[in-house]
TrEMBL record:
Keywords: ATP-binding, Helicase, Hydrolase, Nucleotide-binding
Transmembrane segments: none
Gene Ontology molecular function terms on file: 3'-5' DNA helicase activity; ATP binding; DNA binding; hydrolase activity
Positions of the UvrD-like helicase ATP-binding domain: 193-598
Organism: Krasilnikoviella flava
Protein name: DNA helicase IV
Any one GO CC term of the record: cytosol
Coiled coil: none
Protein's GO biological process: recombinational repair
């Protein structure tokens, strides 16, 4: 025991030194930041922008240094050459630039995750440091060098190579401890216990599209986030300028994961959903399943193109009008030729319109010249052109022939005006078109967004919108100038020292300069250096098109599970989803160990999924938890309070007493078919005071949905999330919903400790293991 205490004390000394260095760096960076801020808002614009840049740099560094407080150092490698290397959340060096701590992402840290007894990679011993706050509370050693093992001093917690070779998990104690901790509403990072199959994916090449398929709880989300952090570290110069985009299935999911990247010292990632990917559009509504499926089809490429073309149209007849006493005609033939020419510019519709209008006005000026039978001086040509441009009949005729239009109007018209959709989408049946019918002012749905993006791509900038914005900017600037003049007058300043123009530029909004991430998020045409997609199986073919457009290099990390697809437009096979947009150029990796779900639960879910013919990946659970699966069948009863509901609330009360902690950790969820959620939520809320006491119930009921320790949700809302214990209500009903057996598979695989299945109806095949005769 003394040996262990000595070792702990020795490591505590090292860790104390690392924290001391961290504190020193924090102090120094804060001082520099304060100094920059003190330098005040004076100087030339150049000076100011330099000052802002330094301020941003120091602010980022302070945030980064603050974020690594928890588990700053978690590993130590003892090397064959006698040296030691500490691994932690960031790199630290002393004042003489000697390395104290190696960033987990640095090549020198790789053996911490990958070395095995078979391939020790120059490592004799790997040590996991367990810390609580700044205190070292435990050590776990793995000796990788067999010879060294014989001579090992037998320090407590040492596992032999034999055990390690037999095990596929590295740092098993630290890993299992971390998997067994109570859950909060926020995902945490896994840097201290990344497993080698995960590490290979995290550090894979930046180039190309990498698809990570894996069953529930295999760490796909964790791996995707750590990969983003790794890529930002390893390719900082490229990615800092172009940015990284992270696409998740919902705002709730993004909130669940939003602490992970900051805790890894990375904040510059744009995280969004497909529904919010277009600047200015927030589409959180859902379509009907039928409309979702139809809108996801790739045929919208052609439909949107035809809809745009329909706004470039030769009129039914010539349009006659009079200008200054002359009879002129907007001729169909001219319009046809001008449309042809404008199309040959290959510019987007709204941009090519200028060429069309110019061409038509030239033809009309020619007509005017012939009618007037006179040569026109250049200034006359300009005047006549202007008169023609502003002539009402000409304007109407040219607009009808080539209509400037926004993406929103184009798409809204398709769904609100049956003749437009019929014309643009002959591939759809009348029934399918009817399923899309919608009033023009209804809110956008998530499935609309890829169509809007497609339209924006083909329509391009609407010059009139850009002009209106320029006008607004000019007006604003004039107001600033005016204000500056009045300031100068009232203060009597001036005297050649400062002019109104300079002063006005100081009044201009001097908010923090936009970061790459902020600029990228505001720009529809921004192209990213890397795109990470989570729950990628939910994306429709049109959504894939939209994403791929944002990453011309095709550098992507795509993680998901085609057995968990619930969207009717989602993917059941990666080749089906990706080949149309990426050709064959993507590679597949698989994760096979479930870190979340106890073995008994994972096995039941796998059997059910296989029986339902879902495309399941192999899955081995990392953990065994006694009594993890409980089945509770109730007999149908009258309506007063159905026995089923009573059983659910009783189970929730018992599980809450077991798992929910007053410190905010520990979560219990009821997962049920969407149409049962409301009633069950009311029932659960009504029993909490009786079961847990008024005070505790009030605390729980006041929690925000994302932090709720007791919640009732449907499988879609639960997707990607996890809870200590789950009460699954009536699996047969869940499996009959629109997400089918996939939704049930998702629901069954949410708990980390216990799954209680409450049901009246027979259980879907597979949940109960058939006894072998
Ligand atoms: N190496 C690891 N060390 C510690 N915890 C891990 C490790 N890998 C995964 N986990 C934990 O396992 C749980 C499941 O991980 P994650 O949510 O990333 O899985 P997933 O494959 O995305 O699941 P789903 O398919 O259900 O969305 C998380 O709590 C995660 O922190």
């Amino acid at each position: 025991m003394a040996g262990r205490q000595d070792e702990l004390a020795r490591e505590q000394g090292v860790v104390d030194g690392l924290y001391a260095r961290l504190d020193e760096l924090r102090r120094a960076t804060r001082e520099r930041l304060a100094e920059v801020r003190r330098s005040g808002p004076s100087g030339s614009p150049q000076n100011r922008s330099e000052r802002d840049a330094f301020a941003t740099l120091y602010e980022d560094r302070v945030a980064q240094l603050d974020a690594v407080e928890d588990r700053l150092a978690f590993g130590r490698l003892d090397l064959d050459d006698g040296g030691t290397r500490y691994v932690g959340r960031l790199g630290l060096a002393d004042a003489e630039h000697r390395s104290l701590l190696t960033d987990w992402r640095a090549p020198a840290a790789t053996p911490f995750y990958r070395a095995t007894a078979l391939h020790p990679a120059g490592v004799r011993r790997r040590r996991h440091l367990v810390t609580t706050g700044r205190a070292v509370t435990g050590l776990e050693d793995e000796v990788l060098d067999l010879d060294a093992l014989q001579a090992a001093d037998g320090a407590d917690g040492t596992t032999g190579a034999g055990t390690l070779a037999a095990s596929t998990l590295s740092g098993e104690g630290a890993l299992l401890a971390s998997l067994a901790t109570r859950r909060t509403g926020r995902m945490t990072d896994i840097v201290a216990t990344i497993q080698s199959e995960q590490d290979r994916i995290i550090r894979a090449d930046l180039a190309g599209a990498l698809v990570v398929q894996g069953g529930p709880g295999t760490g796909k989300t964790a791996v995707a986030l750590h990969r983003a952090a790794y890529l930002l570290y390893a390719h900082r110069r490229v990615l800092e300028r172009s940015g990284v985009l992270l696409v998740g299935p919902s705002r709730a999911f993004l909130r669940y994961i939003d602490q992970v990247l900051p805790s890894l010292g990375e904040t510059g990632v744009v995280a969004t959903t497909v529904g919010e990917l277009l600047p200015g559009v927030r589409a959180n509504e859902a379509d009907t399943p039928a409309a979702t499926e139809i809108k996801g089809r790739l045929l919208w490429r052609d439909v949107v193109r035809r809809a745009v073309r329909a706004r470039e149209r030769v009129p039914a007849r010539d349009v006659r009008f009079r200008l200054e006493g002359y009879d002129l005609v907007v001729r169909r033939r001219d319009v046809r030729e001008a449309i042809g020419r404008a199309r040959r510019t290959h510019k987007p519709h709204n941009e090519a319109r200028a060429a069309f209008a110019r061409d038509m006005l030239t033809r009309l000026v020619d007509q005017y010249r012939a009618a007037a039978d006179a040569d026109l001086a250049p200034e006359d040509v300009a005047m006549v052109t202007e008169d023609l441009r502003s002539h009402r009949d000409v304007r109407v005729a040219l607009n009808l022939a080539w209509f400037p239009i926004t993406p929103e109007k184009l798409v809204a018209d398709l769904f609100a005006k049956p003749h437009r959709l019929a014309e643009a989408a002959p591939e759809l049946t009348a029934g399918e078109r009817a399923a899309l019918r919608r009033d023009p002012d209804e809110p956008w749905t998530e499935a609309d967004v890829p169509l809007l993006d497609e339209a924006a791509e083909l329509l391009g900038e609407d010059g009139s919108i850009a002009r209106a914005e320029a006008r607004a900017r000019a007006t604003e600037r004039a107001a600033e100038l005016e204000y500056a003049r009045s300031v100068l007058e009232s203060t009597g300043a001036g005297g050649g020292l400062v002019d109104a123009e300079t002063l006005a530029s100081r009044f201009e909004s001097t908010g923090p300069r936009l970061t790459t991430a902020e600029r990228a998020a505001e720009d529809r045409t921004w192209t990213y250096g890397h795109v990470v997609v989570d729950e990628a199986q939910e994306l429709s073919p049109m959504a894939w098109r939209m994403l791929v457009r944002r990453v011309p290099t095709r550098s992507m990390t795509i993680v998901g599970d085609v057995a968990q697809t619930s969207s009717p437009a989602g993917a059941r096979s990666w080749p089906d989803a990706l080949d149309p947009v990426l050709g064959g150029s993507w590679r597949l990796e698989e994760l096979t160990v479930s870190y979340r779900t106890p073995a008994e639960v994972a096995d039941a879910a796998q059997r059910m999924a296989a029986a339902a013919a879902l495309p399941v990946s192999p899955l081995t659970a990392a953990r065994q938890v006694d009594g993890a699966l409980e089945l509770s069948r109730v007999t149908p009863s009258g309506p007063a309070r159905p026995v089923l509901v009573q059983e659910v609330v009783d189970q929730v009360a018992a599980l809450a007493a077991d798992f929910v902690g007053a410190d905010g950790a520990g979560r219990v969820a009821v997962v049920a078919a969407a149409d049962q959620v409301r009633a069950l939520r009311e029932a659960v809320e009504s029993v909490l005071p009786g079961a847990l006491g008024a005070q505790e119930a009030a605390r729980l009921l006041a929690q925000r949905p994302e932090d709720a320790q007791v919640s009732v949700l449907d499988p879609r809302a639960a997707k990607g999330l996890e809870f200590d214990a789950v009460v699954l209500v009536e699996p047969a009903t869940v499996a009959q919903g629109t997400g089918g057996a996939s939704d049930l598979y998702v629901a069954m695989t949410r708990p980390t400790q216990r799954l209680v299945v409450v049901h009246e109806q027979a259980l879907p095949t597979g949940i109960v293991e058939l006894a072998v005769a």
